[in-house]
Amino acid sequence: xxxxxxLVDKYQRASKTMKASLWFIVCYMIQRGMQFIGMPIFTRxxxxxxxxxxxxxxxxxxxxxxxxxxxxxxxxxxKAMIKYEKERDSYISxxxxxxxxxxxxxxxxxxxxxxxxxxxxxxxxxxxxLMCLHLILFPSLQYWSQKQRFLFEYKKLVFIxxxxxxCSLIFGVIITxxxxxxxxxxxxxxxxxxxxxxxxxxxxxxxxxxxxxxxxYWQWSMIMALPLIPHYVSELLLGHADRIMIxxxxxxxxxxxxxxxxxxxxxxxxxxxxxxxxxxxxxYYSLKNKDYIDIRTNSKALTIMMFMLTVFFxxxxxxxxxxxxxxxxxxxxxxxxxxxxxxxxxxxxxLFMYVEIYLEKTKGVAVASIIAALTNILLNYIxxxxxxxxxxxxxxxxxxxxxxxxxxxxLRLSIGHDEKFSLVYDFxxxxxxxxxxxxxxxLIIYLYDFPLLRLxxxxxxxxxxxxxxxxxxxxxxxxxxxx
Length: 483
Fold this sequence. Notes:
Blueprint: H1 2-13, H2 16-45, H3 48-69, H4 75-83, H5 88-112, H6 114-121, H7 125-150, H8 154-178, H9 182-205, H10 215-225, H11 229-250, H12 252-265, H13 268-288, H14 292-315, H15 317-324, H16 336-358, H17 362-387, H18 391-415, H19 427-447, H20 451-467, H21 469-480
Subcellular location: Cell membrane
Keywords: Cell membrane, Membrane, Transmembrane, Transmembrane helix
InterPro entries: Poly_Biosynth_Transport (IPR050833), Polysacc_synth (IPR002797)
């Protein structure tokens, strides 16, 4: 009871940013937790082909959404919240009409060419209608959510996010069980529930005094966002092209198996996204105030945290896979370390990319992403037919490493000879931790055949983390308490 009181007291005395950071991470963990709870259920009530159809549909949606939303709610949005500090509501209200218009235009094109799309993808008109609905409404949820994160307003965001996740899981399981067309039913439940929420938030974002069309807002957003489109497309292809290509080369069943392993391995995204969600606004404020040393110190602490968590989840990867899916999926366990390490390199390159976007040096961002994505597609084309679908995990890792290296180069070029700005990150430290994580990944694959050695390694890691918890948590608290 004493410990609980102490924790409650610390929480009550914590700053708004500290509380927001905590809840953003907890919320995202619960959201992903709902997905992990759903995985062992869906993989047992659906065939691998049916689950593969669902996974590939989401991959296509994520790709098309880049063009209908221009991904304005990503990096460009945080910059807009500073640029239009006194006009934030007007900006959001106006810009969602831009993406609504783009959504309708793309949906019109999809409906016109629905027969060709069906022939190429296997998704009939009913799937395409769901796709259009999702593309039109989805950006409103993102604008509203990003504003809450930027302002550290966590209560409403937590409520909406958890309502969406819990309803999607409960109704998804019920409808899928009783339905004959299980892949369509699961997609329909996911899209319809989220569309209700998006519609409500569209009106929450809408402000009567704000112009529907604003040349200033629309023009600036497109100038900032359009050069980043190749980056976002390339980034998405890095994460989803493997599943699409596996589906074409090896079939939907293999794509379904790979997707399960990918989702398990991407558990690190829970931590990374939660940290980045709170870190990005703080970073932009700190860059604006030229607090470079603070950024260097705190990013180093976060890197240590990411490093240890990546090793931890690689070590317990086989157990998570057995829990999430039937034994028939276990053949893909050797892909877990590669995708986990790839997620660590996403964290590294995102650190660099945030600063590039702040400096409005977006051309390098696009170039790096295009090269990495094309490399990934080429390597997949060569190695998937030769070594099987698991080769995609390693080709994707190579591409993420390449992406991190290129972002490092472009960031150094953007900084130039500004000695103070070069203190933003400890580049040597990032290089050493990146090298070590690759070496450990190779060792952990070997340990998968020796459970006792893996258990000993896991206990050692936990002890090291426990002994250093105070230092890491203190630095993290310091980071979150500053605005």
